[in-house]
Amino acid sequence: MYCSLLLKRARLALASALLLAALPAGAQTTLRIGMTAADIPATTSQPDSGFEGNRFAGLTLFDALTLWDLSSAEKPSVVIPGLAESWAVDAKDKTKWVFKLRKGVKFHDGTAFNADAAIFNFEKVLDKSKPHYDARLVAQTLPRMPTLKGATKVDDYTIIVETSEPDAFLPFNLTNLFMASPAAWAKTRSWTEFAKAPVGSGPWKFVRLVPRERLELEKFTGYWNKNRVPKTDRMVLIPMPEPNTRVAALLSGQVDWIEAPPSDAIPQLRSKGYQITSNPYPHTWPWQLNVAPGSPFADKRVRQALQLAVDREGLRRLLGFNAIAAKGVVFENHPWFGKPKFEVKYDPVTARKLLAEAGYGPGKRLKMKVQISASGSGQMQPIAMNEYIQQQLKEIGVDVEFDVIVWETLFNNWRLGAKDPAARGADAINVSFAWQDPFFGFARFYDSRMVAPRSVNWGWIQDAEMDKLVAKARGSFDAKARDIALSKVHERAVEESYFLFWVHDVGPRALSPKVKGFVQAKNWFQDFSTVSMQ
């Protein structure tokens, strides 16, 4: 049933791409991208489908108060001004921030962005008394910014944003609150209807959406940042969850760009003149364990045993070395890595010893179920990767069963948590994630208050010492002090092994020779504005 659904969607995507390829090009240039998503991400202003949704249906159509700098392939991305020109925490009350808004910004419908528009977008996810509040938008937003309390207007271009506690992570979090046109919403008074013709202030304007087939965008010539007015006239986004389908579409000229090409296809693509791009960036691919009382994985010895059981170099080889072996949430040379007492490495002898100490062995094999997907946002090649891990764990006495579900369902289950019926008794879940900021890398997983569904502490981590460390990092408004505090969080994360750290992604992409000017940032998000078509 699942495979049939994937094949049907793949055929629809190919048919759509073929139709687009047959259209006369005219004087306009068009960039066609094969996404890994199985469907078009929601265009409600708060996309679904994980961060792939934000990449393709968020940062294209919309802006946020703060944005990521995606201009460099060499430097790590940092948060920069977006629709807010500046911000500062109140020295006397660190639960309040003053944001100065950018003047002269227009939405795609010609209406002005100002304080009233900003407040409207805070209310859509925070104020249940407002007609534009929508629980679906909340589900895609607040797990990423749980301390956000509200915003008030000072004048037409100044607002105060309030948090429930001092939170130095707020500027990072606000990159995920996209600004939609209040006037466009008012025409229908429905986010479902708004999504059929979404209006933001981003560098790309909406043209057309065909569910499960394509999303068509065109450049917004009136974009406020003239350096980011797109160099391509149109962009077409096509869902292609099956990796070989994406390769076939690229080779046949039906698309110009594909996300996550399978490693065994890369040599062929390169030999035929296609560009293969990649760049190490803050994105990791782990298993998140259920450590609730009563679970076998509540025992740290079991968690550490699994951590030591897998040869990550073999996993890299499987991926054509388009990955980096993970020794924690972040890279080893990152300021947040610290000096963990436990080393993540391949040591099956110690792994068996730890399992034996925990009561497992030849006469009592450890059994576990893991929820995974066959494709999806940042999931690389999940079936092949998980089967490799399954075989490695089998060799130390661990039998792994997979519950394979559609990516969007897996992502929703992630937010519901291990105790929800949707988990179907899973002992772990395989969802890749970006860790470019402190909240996304640590707080949402390890803080006991972030237990699903408030955020994505899926495995019910209740660690008092970790809570103290996370609180110290969240309350550190000095960048250097925050880095030190986060290194302590990471040290405990590695030692406790609540996650099984497998590999970090390098974001391989395959591009037609016609594609020029792409700068692959060290970030999950990318800027399509620089791309031109020869």
Brief description of this entry?
Helices cover 31% and strands 20% of the residues. With 534 residues, the protein is α+β, with helices and mostly antiparallel strands.
The CATH superfamily of the largest domain bears the name Dipeptide-binding Protein, Domain 3
* Total individual domains: 3
CATH architecture of the largest domain: Roll
> Between the first and last Cα atoms, what is the distance in angstroms?
42 Å
Radius of gyration in whole Å, from Cα? 23 Å
Number of strands: 22
Question: CATH fold name of the largest domain, please?
Answer: Dipeptide-binding Protein, domain 3
From the helix content, strand content and strand pairing, which structural class follows? Answer: alpha+beta
Strand content: 15-25%
Strand neighbour order, sheet with most strands: 8-9-10-1-11-20-12
The main sheet comes to:
7 strands, mixed
Mean pLDDT comes to 94
Instruction: Tell the overall outline.
Output: globular
SSE map:
Layout: H1 2-22, E1 30-35, H2 50-58, E2 66-68, E3 79-81, E4 84-89, E5 96-101, H3 115-126, H4 135-141, E6 148-155, E7 158-163, H5 170-173, H6 182-188, H7 191-194, E8 204-210, E9 214-219, E10 234-239, H8 243-251, E11 257-259, H9 266-271, E12 275-277, E13 283-289, H10 300-308, H11 312-318, E14 323-325, H12 348-357, E15 366-372, H13 382-394, E16 398-404, H14 407-416, E17 428-429, E18 433-434, H15 438-446, H16 464-474, H17 479-496, E19 499-505, E20 509-511, E21 515-516, E22 532-533
Tags for this model:
disordered N terminus, Dipeptide-binding Protein, domain 3, D-Maltodextrin-Binding Protein, domain 2, single chain, seven-stranded mixed β-sheet, 22 strands, Dipeptide-binding Protein, domain 1, 534 residues, 3 domains, alpha+beta, 17 helices, globular
